[in-house]
Design goal:
Elements (H helix, E strand, L loop, with lengths): L13 H12 L2 H13 L3 H29 L3 H8 L6 H33 L10 H11 L3 H19 L1 H6 L2 H19 L5 H9 L9 H14 L6 H7 L10 H26 L10 H12 L3 H35 L3 H21 L8 E2 L2 E2 H27 L3 H7 L6 H25 L4
Antiparallel strand pairs: 1-2
Helix pairs in contact: 1-12, 1-13, 1-15, 2-11, 2-13, 3-4, 3-11, 3-12, 3-13, 3-17, 3-19, 4-5, 5-7, 5-15, 5-16, 5-17, 7-15, 7-16, 9-13, 9-15, 10-13, 11-17, 11-19, 13-14, 14-15, 15-16, 16-17, 17-19
Bound molecules: phenylalanine.
Length: 449
């Protein structure tokens, strides 16, 4: 073991750590991304694969990231160097830092849209003559060259502000009250949405699988990408958060609770969005704009809709903030150590660069919409590369690292599992099941089978 840096921060408590990890996991991924990806991939069959991946690939790798971070007490790159000096595993660390840049660049764009919708409701709501016009309101906004950039800038400034102050002060407390509030609100809205007349269509869309979808490899890739994105997995966010945990704290349980909360959140968000989608004749495969079109219809129809709309978008923006903070922290933690800069300087420089990288994603919805890769906009391409390729690949390396690059007894001890049945099953999944499954999904999606 190397010298332990006594200046590194630590969480105030185990609960603080779990809440921060939950704050990272629960965000736009559960509401914005979950609903549009579920919609695009046909609903129930996708969901089934998604749940399977969460349980058998996601949770074990969440546990692997926590274990690496807690044991190494360093950032995503430093953790691999600490545990396996001079070995190529550190590539996974660099991929993680790269993923943080890419994901946060477009995450800031969507979060900016969220903040804009919050302001809409704060200032009286959105007025339209019929529900179909919510599409126009949305498109008018995102195709404007300047407006979305301003909101993205504002959101990135908030993210930078929190990371600037530091992990413990900035991150730990933010979500303690607001996340439960968002959960309650999403449950209320789901209850209301189910009364709008689209409930039976929505329930069969979400829970009656069209088995023919199981033969489409892209559905598997989409489910894998969504599982990683939603769990904040595969790029070291959870390694970095695990590293602020004191060595005394015990891990088992934390991984499962984070994944369970994240998944339940997404499911209830689905019950909120899809009944409205069917009730108002919106196409489920509308794409990334889905929630910004479906939700205003709900608020328009309900009593106190403007108030609910305002509170909802506020809480969603806060949930996005606790996720964006974890993305920025991955890069910042690395560069603080790498260049020996102060946290403040690092945060502003890296956060500023990430904002600039995000500008093309924002413009790709309007003026730059002619620039496409395989038919996808810049924003969608960024999302695809990071979520469907880099994160699962990062997860694959992390699984192999703990499974093979680490002595089994050491890994079991560091994970707090010990030599138990659960611990041995975990190692088995990391050694064989998860890497092979991810590999097969990759091969299938490029048409090998
Ligand atoms: N999990 C976050 C969300 O669902 C996004 C995220 C991905 C955060 C990767 C950190 C790392 O919104």
């Amino acid at each position: 073991m190397g010298q332990i840096d006594t200046n590194r921060e630590q969480w105030g408590s185990r609960l603080g750590f779990i809440l921060a990890a939950m704050g990272s996991a629960v965000g736009l991924g559960n509401i914005w991304r979950f609903s549009y990806v579920t919609g695009e991939n046909g609903g129930a069959a996708f969901l089934l694969i998604y749940f399977f991946f969460i349980i058998f690939i996601g949770i074990p790798i969440v546990m692997a990231e926590f274990t690496i971070g807690k044991r190494a007490q360093s950032d995503v790159v430093g953790s691999f160097e600490e545990i396996a000096p001079g070995k190529p595993w550190v590539i996974a660390g660099f991929m993680g830092v790269a993923s943080a840049f890419i994901i946060l660049s477009f995450y800031g764009v969507i979060a900016g849209w969220t903040v804009r919708y919050f302001i809409h409701y704060l200032t009286g709501g959105i007025t339209v003559e019929n529900d179909a016009q919510y599409v126009d309101v949305f498109l008018n906004f995102i195709t404007n060259p300047l407006q979305p950039l301003l909101w993205q800038f504002l959101f990135m400034a908030l993210t930078i502000g929190i990371v600037y102050v530091g992990v413990k002060k900035g991150i730990e407390k933010t979500n303690k009250i607001l996340m439960p509030l968002l959960a309650i609100l999403v449950i209320i809205l789901a209850g209301y949405s189910l009364t709008l007349g689209g409930a039976s269509d929505a329930l069969s869309f979400l829970f009656t699988p069209d088995w023919s979808k199981l033969s489409d490899p892209n559905v598997y890739l989409a489910a894998l990408g969504q599982a990683f994105f939603s769990l904040s997995l595969g790029m070291g966010a959870l390694i970095t958060y695990g590293s602020y945990l004191s060595k005394k704290e015990k891990l088992p349980g934390a991984a499962a609770s984070v994944a369970a909360l994240d998944t339940v959140f997404a499911l209830i968000a689905g019950l909120m969005i899809f009944p409205a989608v069917f009730a108002f004749g919106i196409q489920p495969d509308e794409g990334p704009g889905l929630v910004f079109i479906a939700l205003p219809s709900i608020f328009d129809n309900m009593a106190y809709g403007t108030l609910f709309g305002g509170v909802f978008f506020f809480l969603l923006a806060v949930a996005a903030l606790s996720s964006s903070v974890s993305l920025l922290e991955v890069a910042v933690a690395y560069f603080i150590r790498k260049f020996n800069w102060t946290r403040q300087k690092t945060t502003i420089i890296i956060g500023g660069i990430i904002f600039i990288i995000g500008v093309p994603s924002s413009l790709s919805q309007g003026n730059w919409s002619h620039i496409t890769f395989f038919g996808a906009s810049i924003l969608d391409s960024m999302d695809f590369i990071a979520s469907n390729i880099l994160l699962p690949l990062g997860g694959l390396l992390i699984a192999l690292f703990v499974g093979w690059g680490w002595k089994k007894s050491d890994a079991l001890e560091a994970s707090d599992f010990g030599d138990t049945l659960l611990g041995n099953s975990w190692i088995f999944i990391l050694r064989y099941f998860a890497p092979i499954a991810i590999f097969i999904v990759f091969l299938a999606s490029i048409g090998v089978f």
